[in-house]
């Protein structure tokens, strides 16, 4: 927020904006995909690792200059951080519509699973998928 020409911290009761959460999640996904720690990313863009934590949670907004530096460091285009956002945003007249939210935050392991899975033969991918569904108690969606 801007008040009298000065940036103000977000009110403690104010929830992070859906776009800030989405961008933060995409920063985290790419960081984990590259095998980087929060400290390594923080050093590369000149902030503390605590600041990277806040970016990834969406509690703090990533400035345009920091987003540019992150994109350069992680070798992605800036639109990468917004990918998947446009379809989930409410229209201007839909004030009460809930914003885009991610229920499950990626972990280092889930990102690694996603990275490794395409390298497995299709049969093994299917077996692992069946095992994961069984562990989670989710039904098999395949037609029989």
From TrEMBL:
Residues 1-21 are annotated as: Disordered. CDD domains: HTH_XRE (cd00093). Signal peptide: none annotated. PROSITE patterns: HTH_CROC1. Pfam families: HTH_3. It comes from the Bacteria. Residues 9-21 have a biased composition (Basic and acidic residues). Residues 27-81 form the HTH cro/C1-type domain. This is Transcriptional regulator. InterPro entries: Cro/C1-type_HTH, Lambda_DNA-bd_dom_sf. It comes from Brevundimonas intermedia.
